[in-house]
Amino acid sequence: MNRINTLFGIQYPLVQAGMIWCSGWELASAVSNAGGLGLIGAGSMYPDILRQQLQKCREATDKPFGVNIPLLYPEVEKLMELVLEFRVPIVFTSAGNPKTWTPKLKDAGIRVVHVVSSSTFARKAEEAGCDAVVAEGFEAGGHNGREETTTMCLIPLVSRAVGIPVIAAGGIGSGRAMLAAMVLGAEGVQVGSRFVATEESSAHQAFKKQVIQAKEGDTLLTLKELTPVRLLRNPFFDEVMEAYRRGADREELAALLGRGRAKKGMFEGDLESGELEIGQVSAGIRDIIPAAEVVRQMLAEFRSAKASLDESGFSF
User: Do 159 and 35 share a structural domain?
Assistant: First the structure.
């Protein structure tokens, strides 16, 4: 047991990321039932939808689960009210100032974790009273930090900067990557892209198939003028690149992005004009399997890799 296991009351220090349009109650409950921590991605949900998701997740698991809430979400107050009403034990926050909600959540006995992309933001999260931070590197899918710091560089920087537990994210989709993150100072890992390509993910089947067909170099961090996001290449992505070549300003990029692009691509399966958010690790994902099998495979590979290192000695 480490601090992450104890903090969340889970068997394994493995967190499923709360990804918009991909992380509903089916995925969250499946990961929690498998011994990890499942998160409902509330960033894509109206309050009435989140209420339904919380009810169904409670029915599907008696294990701890959490909710991820981007603090810039327009109806964040209503989402937080639901979290308090349902006594959700764990909340992951992102995209905003952790001081805004952390004290109120903590007063209700809720564990609070904030997603950061730098050691500076990690310190601010600790000062705000967060119980842990997710250090998310440049490799991660979806919305990302502007600093472009890779996970391997970020984990030791954040681990030295704070005293609270650090959860590594970005480019982690295997047990070997999990072991590497822990060697660098993390006490747990958050996995996103690998869980997109699972049977329980709420992503559209067409998007899942696109993910497992991805190759090296098929994703790119873009739209930094708005909110940085890592996208899989498709016709919409090509439109964005063409806009950059024309010297498009922030307003033109915002108009091109419009509304509902992420829902159209990831949830509705429009691979032409939708926004397809996924991490670099997608290049190593080749199958769609149950979430519990992802947990099992990662833990088995983690143990195997650790045993190999212990046996080899690596004496110099």
Answer: yes
- Looking at the domain assignment, is residue 46 inside a domain? yes
Residue 70 in contact with residue 50, Cβ under 8 Å? no
Contacts (Cβ under 8 Å, ≥6 apart) of 3: 132, 165, 187
Q: Which tokens belong to 69? A: 């809430």
Lookup result for tokens 């997109």: 196
Name which of 31, 33, 2, 34 is nearest 17 in CA terms: 31
Q: 151: which 2 tokens?
A: 């996970």
- List pLDDT tens digits, range 172-229: 999 999 999 999 999 999 999 999 999 999 999 999 999 999 999 999 988 888 788 8
Closest CA to 193 of 244, 150, 136, 152: 136
Query: What are 218-243's pLDDT values in tens digits?
Result: 999 888 887 888 999 999 999 989 99
How many other C-beta atoms are found inside a 10 Å radius of the C-beta of residue 191? 27
25-53: per-residue pLDDT in tens?
999 999 999 999 999 999 889 999 999 99
CATH of the domain at 25: 3.20.20.70
Is 142 among the domain residues? yes
Clarify whether residues 26 and 130 are in a common domain: yes
Range of the domain at 104: 3-203+282-302
Q: Please, are residues 151 and 172 in contact by the beta-carbon 8 Å criterion?
A: yes
Residue 271 inside a domain? The answer is yes
Residues 139 and 236 in one domain: no
Residues 123 and 183 in one domain: yes
**Span 261-277, average pLDDT:** 93
Helices then strands, counting H and E runs in the chain, come out as 14, 11
Same domain, 96 and 122: yes
User: 83: part of which helix (H) or strand (E)?
Assistant: helix 76-85
Torsion angle of the four alpha carbons 237, 285, 280, 168, in this order, in degrees rounded to the nearest 10: 140
Is residue 310 domain-resident?
no
Question: Could you give the 3-state DSSP secondary structure of residue 139?
Answer: coil
Are the C-beta atoms of 51 and 310 separated by less than 8 Å? Answer: no
Together in a domain, 118 and 249: no
